[in-house]
Amino acid sequence: MIMKDAKVGGAWAWHQDYGYWYQNGVLFPLLTSAYIAIDPSTRENGCLQVLKGSHKLGRIDHVLTGDQAGADLERVNEALNRLELVHLVMDPGDVLFFHCNLLHRSDRNCSDHPRWSMICCYNAARNNPYKDSHHPRYTPLAIVPDSAVREAGLKRFANTSADVAWLDPAKDVSAASLAEKSDAG
Question: Domain 2-127, what fold?
């Protein structure tokens, strides 16, 4: 979660998400990010800014500037002379999917309103990091039938006083729908 509260949410330097993932042992730029607006995102509250087409530059070295690691400013400044700067004004629920080498930044929140957003990053399963870092490696998921979710929940709460009405098809229409689908095959 990126939580830019009113009047205090700080700015982010120009960077590429792959600039960080590269340091975590990810060999190839086979990643994408989904930027989801939780609050309205405006120029006044520090909306995301991107350099259109900058993902074609490849990975740019990232250096520590103050307390942030940002893309090499010499290259960024040259890219600013050649590429279009886009301020992404977004409504809650809007999503931007972008390449891991897209240069992006944001300004400080100078408004009276918060600007919260969520960023989800996705790495190709075949692009597993070659070294341990604070990000987990790929773990295959076991495919189970839909009914397994309900069964696991019922077993977990069987010996507790927790309210499991959401798991009971007689009390919850979504659970009833799930039970019907699993019974059908």
Answer: Jelly Rolls (2.60.120)
